Amino acid sequence: MRKNGINRELVPILGGVCAPSGFSAGGIRCGFLQNDDSREDLALIVAEKRCSIAGLFATQKTRGAPAIVSEKRLNKGLARAIVVNSGVANLFESGTALAENVCAEVEKYAKIPKEEVLIASTGLVGKSLSLETFSRGIQSLVGKLGSKNEDSLSAARAIMTTDKSVKQLSFAFDLGGYACKIGAICKGGKNVCPNMATTLCFLTTDVNISSPVLQKALSSVARDSLNLLCADGNSSPNDTVFIMANGNAGNYRIDCEDTEYKKFVYILGEVMQRICRALALDGDEERTLWTCRVKGVRSKQTARALCKSLASAEGIKKGFSERKVDVQSVICAVHDTGEAVKMETLSVSIATEKGKLLLFEDGKLMPVSSEVENGILQAKEAELTVAFLDGNFSASAITVV
């Protein structure tokens, strides 16, 4: 479907981070994971040529060592590889030397300058990591990299920790008449309440775009997707998202915030929303995904603050788990943000594929039987909408119960 010149259709394809041409990936078992004798725990994503790059990290002042090292690389604007370990997290600032040395091992065996290697780490805190283990793993892994779907899946498994499912996706789309692709792998089972992006998420694309503009696009999209994901209320100091763009699609280079940039932002936003859903559900068929939507307020910042407060409120989530909406908790969650809104215009409604109900309007609770409400909420996805008559801005956050 096209609207305003934008191809709104993302076509699912196989390949993950290997779907765009010019990228290879793989995972290998090194021994970082202590409770699994078979699963991969070291991943590597490599580009044939230097890529435009962008990234985001936890907004808290406490950063893990890999984030400290990778942020320096991002400032240079080009990269060719991402190396990630799971099982044991390289968290403390004292681990920056190790992170630098791991990048040097990638340089040694993959012949990629260490300044063009990004690094991330996830797993248990408090256990030590050995450079020798990294070195053996990287040496072996470099010779096993591939560009097939199973190679990306191997990398996706290697970044898992408490995840119940492997998370990989990829899509084809049209941008300015050029056939483009984008792929991603991500992880997140616990500590999923990002304040930057998400737990770990790595994307590749063949779109031709400059690093500064790619960074603007990623930052913009994250504010309305990954930053509004709240599965359990906790984030991690090692939270990281990277995207590499190699330009192989041959489209007109996007180097300013023009029409093509806006199209790409739309596409990236759609992909990020799908990533959020995958992270929230984590392959658990028993979970119910809730979208908490706020509309009719004076600013985007207000809308974001309100919808994330709704998605995080324990009283609301408890009600969700009992197949009902606690309107009093909704009102309290709105009040707790400290945002200035016209409460007298507040309305609250719920909707699923089974129907829609108005629960609160004009300062009054609407007469709704618990049986009807419970029936409507017998669905795997539901939407809570809190609306005001105070402006034109909206936002939505995702949570699960």
Task: Describe this protein's structure.
- With 401 residues, the protein is of the alpha+beta class.
- The protein folds into two domains: 2-281, L-amino peptidase D-ALA esterase/amidase (4-Layer Sandwich); 289-400, Roll (Ubiquitin-like (UB roll)).
- It contains ten helices and 17 strands.
- The strands form three sheets. Strands 3, 4, 5, 6, 7, 8, 9, 10 and 11 form a nine-stranded mixed sheet that branches. The chain has a six-stranded mixed sheet with strand order 15-14-13-16-12-17. It has a two-stranded antiparallel sheet with strand order 1-2.
- A hairpin with a 2-residue loop joins strand 14 and strand 15.
- The protein is globular, with a radius of gyration of 22 Å.
SSE inventory with pairings:
Layout (H helix, E strand, L loop, with lengths): L1 E2 L2 E2 L3 E2 L10 E6 L13 E16 L7 H12 L1 E8 L10 H15 L6 E5 L9 H12 L6 H10 L8 E9 L2 E10 L12 E6 L5 H13 L16 E6 L13 H23 L7 E9 L2 H13 L1 H8 L5 H10 L10 E6 L2 E7 L2 E2 L4 H7 L4 E7 L5 E8 L1
Parallel strand pairs: 6-7, 10-11, 12-16
Antiparallel strand pairs: 1-2, 3-8, 4-5, 5-6, 5-11, 8-9, 9-10, 12-17, 13-14, 13-16, 14-15
Helix pairs in contact: 1-2, 2-3, 5-6
Keywords:
single chain; 401 residues; alpha+beta; L-amino peptidase D-ALA esterase/amidase; Ubiquitin-like (UB roll); 2 domains; nine-stranded mixed β-sheet; 10 helices; 31% helix; disordered N terminus
Beta content comes to 25-35%
Residue runs with pLDDT of under 50 for 5 or more positions: 1-6
SSE run:
EEEEEHEHEHHEEEHEHEHHHEEEHEE
Helix content: 25-40%
CATH architecture of the largest domain: 4-Layer Sandwich
Overall pLDDT confidence: 91
| Sheet/helix structural class | alpha+beta
In CATH terms, the superfamily of the largest domain is L-amino peptidase D-ALA esterase/amidase
The CA-CA distance between the termini, in Å, is 33 Å
Number of domains as seen in the coordinates? 2
- Strand runs, count: 17
The gyration radius over C-alpha positions equals 22 Å
Taking the sheet with the most strands, its summary is:
9 strands, mixed
What is the CATH third-level topology name of the largest domain?
Answer: L-amino peptidase D-ALA esterase/amidase
Helical run tally: 10
Large-scale geometry: globular
